[in-house]
Design goal:
By secondary structure, the protein is an alpha/beta fold. It is 47% helix and 15% strand.
Length: 363
């Protein structure tokens, strides 16, 4: 189990470096100041640190081999422990989204403590807030990207291991399961028709209801078939068209046709579409639609899972960034700070909903 130990240790250690750099201290000025600042570039998937991604990938693959040498009962115990690490990352995102902002050039020197990094993980090189070491906006972004990468490989390990020990369904078992799911879905639909559509938070969003998730025992063909019983977000009539008309201004013209196919026909793009705005804005747009019951048939976590592989967003340096599920979960499923610059608002007139540009974001 040496490789598993190395992998878990590696993804939970943050090696901060202290460098001297010229950074902007305030918005509205081009004046830079020569300061000492924290740096985490070497533990991100970007810049000159591609070896870090490769190192984590190799350790993850070797950890998977370690796990497969165990019997099923011991693998289950290890999955329980891995899930505890996953929850640590989820907790981090809650704190991170409460303190991170694309508009900040220099954070308070207590930023690293505020996001509970040193509490949740091992942090090497962290100095006292009196040490005159600045926390730059770039460091704040790099920290998020570093955690995304670590969490990504952790989730790959968890999912691969869970799938490996999951008994595969036969076609007969699958058909029996599918019929049961159809009946359950029909019952839910009949119930929802008698519910006032103005309710903002669906009953299925309450914590007591088990999370809907696709059974990892299904093969690709079965997963495709299972889509009809409601594992994917469904836009209410007229919503997808309105959303497309609003969102298309945030995408390059050559992506408009693909975006339309995605929203109106649920045809996933071959490569993720680049949203020319912040992650907070994109997440807030879908969150508003879900909370207004304009997206139905799934939980918020299912919607996050649907969004993650289909979109990228622009960093403050105008560089494409990924949107992993854990990162989205911190933006959409928790009650953190509201989006400061939403791109849409939802208005209702009688029984009709209208998706409109937010006043300060009209293009």
């Amino acid at each position: 189990m040496q490789h598993l130990k190395e992998f878990l240790t590696r993804i939970q250690i943050f090696d901060l470096r202290i460098i001297e750099d010229e950074i902007y201290m305030d918005w509205g000025t081009d004046e830079k100041k020569h300061v000492k600042t924290y740096d985490l570039t070497h533990q991100t998937p970007y810049y000159d640190s591609f070896s870090y991604r490769s190192e984590l990938r190799v350790l993850k693959d070797m950890a998977f081999i370690d796990l497969l040498t165990l019997d099923k009962e011991r693998i289950q115990l290890q999955l329980t422990e891995l899930d505890k690490v996953r929850n640590r990352f989820k907790e981090f995102w809650n704190y991170y989204h409460d303190h991170y902002s694309e508009m900040v050039r220099v954070y308070n020197r207590s930023f690293i403590i505020s996001v509970r990094l040193e509490y949740l993980f091992i942090v090497n090189g962290l100095q006292s807030t009196n040490a005159n070491i600045e926390v730059s906006g770039k460091f704040g972004e790099d920290l998020g990207e570093s955690v995304k990468l670590r969490e990504k490989f952790l989730m790959e390990l968890i999912n691969a291991t869970a799938t490996a020990i999951k008994p595969k369904r036969s076609e007969a078992e699958f058909k029996e399961w599918l019929d049961a799911e159809r009946k359950k879905k029909e019952a839910e639909s009949e119930k929802s028709e008698t519910t006032d559509v103005t309710v903002i938070t669906p009953k299925s969003e309450t914590p007591s209801v088990p999370e809907t998730a696709v059974d990892p025992g299904l093969n690709v063909e079965q997963l495709t078939t299972a889509k009809i019983v409601g594992y994917y977000p469904t836009f209410k009539e007229g919503v997808a068209g309105q959303l497309f008309n609003l969102l298309k201004t945030y995408f390059a013209p050559e992506d408009h046709a693909v975006l339309e196919e995605l929203l109106l026909h649920d045809e996933a793009p071959v490569t993720p579409l680049l949203f020319r705005g912040s992650a907070t804005q994109l997440a807030d747009a879908f969150k508003q639609l879900k909370e207004a019951n304009l997206i139905v048939g799934c939980r918020m976590s299912d919607l996050e899972r649907w969004i993650a592989p289909k979109f990228l967003y622009l960093s403050p340096q105008s560089e494409p960034r990924e949107l992993p599920e854990g990162y989205l979960n911190g933006l959409m499923s928790t009650k953190g700070r509201p989006c400061k610059s939403p791109i849409l608002k939802i208005e209702r007139k009688e029984d009709t909903f209208f998706i409109l540009p937010a006043p300060s974001n009209k293009k």
